[in-house]
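Human: Cast an eye over this sequence-structure pair and say how the chain folds.
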Amino acid sequence: MEKYPDKLYSVPESVVGIMLQIMEMIPDKGILLNDLKELMSNVDTNDFIDALTCLYAIQAIKYNSFYFIEKSC
C-alpha cells in the first residue's frame, strides 16, 4: 500500500522519504536494481517500487538498461 505523508505516516516513513533514501543510495556511476534493493532491504517491496516509479515519473532517475539505474541530474 502506498504510504504518503499524513497524520499516520511521517515523511521518512512515507514514499517521499523512501524516494529521498533511494536518491542518496544511487552513486554517480549508477547501480544495479538488485544491489539497490539489497541496500534498502528494510523497505517494503511495494513501497520501494512505488518510490522508483515516482522518481522515474519526475525524471530524477533513468534506466540505462532494464536493471541499471542512474541519476538524471
Remarks:
- The two ends are 29 Å apart (CA to CA).
- The first helix runs from residue 15 to 25.
